[in-house]
Amino acid sequence: MTAFSNRPQTRDSVKIMSRLDLTKRLVAKLHKHEAVIGGIGNTNFDLWASGRRAENFYMLGSMGLAVPIALGLAIAQPERGVIALEGDGSILMQLGSLATVASRAPKNLLIVVMDNGTYQITGGQPTATGLGADIVAIAKGAGLSQAAWAADEGHFEEMADQALAEPGPWLIAVRLDAEKPKIQTTRDPVQIRSHFMRGIGTQPAWGS
How far are the Cα atoms of 21, 127, 204 from residue 26, in angstroms, in the given order? Predict the structure, then answer.
């Protein structure tokens, strides 16, 4: 049995965990220049706090683009592992991207959905997941068969290890507490883009 199938879970049955802790656990596993795309807000704030890797991209200002950006990179660089870190509110705005990922089926893509059930940085309004929607069920319905909830921190690490070692695409969903980020990402889009493009071995078309 694999980490993705040995413990079937639902959103309501899994442990509520820390986004920063899970992000640090994931980043500590990256030793092959994997690219990480952090969605807007708290998701990329905690990625920023987990180590300023050259292969990290911090999305600013636009909800729902972590998965589309990660998909494009996974297709363009099939030998590189690519990870999208996305919040529940943002993935709900781009559910069509899950069907596109399933149809293109990049083997090198892992999606991690950080679900706290709220739009945390805009006042804590409930998202659809907080009202009953299940991202894993949606992902499986879109064709992503290798999608599952992480039961706890240990299970999350098992799932991440499998996803980094075996062909995907994969989707891991995690339940989060209400912990706020300790710091925020530097808001310099040109610097972020240029640093990331150098990190993945491409040269910016303009700027430096």
Answer: 9, 25, 28
* Amino acid at the residue 124: G
Q: Compute the half-sphere exposure of residue 97: CA atoms within 13 Å on the CB side of its CA.
A: 21
Pull the structure tokens for residue 53.
């890797």
> Exposed/middle/buried for 113, CB within 10 Å: 0-12, 13-18, 19+?
buried
Q: How far apart are CA 48 and CA 56, in angstroms?
A: 8
Q: What is the DSSP string of 134-173?
A: -HHHHHHHTT--SEEE--SHHHHHHHHHHHHHS---EEEE
pLDDT cut 90: percent of the chain above it: 73
Q: Is the pTM of this model over 0.85?
A: yes
The residue among 26, 43, 14 whose CA lies nearest residue 152 is 14
pLDDT digits (tens, 9 = 90+) for 106-117: 999 999 999 999
Domains of the chain: 11-199 (3.40.50.970)
* Tokens linked to 170: 């994969």
Of the CA atoms within 13 Å of residue 85, those in its CB half-sphere come to 27
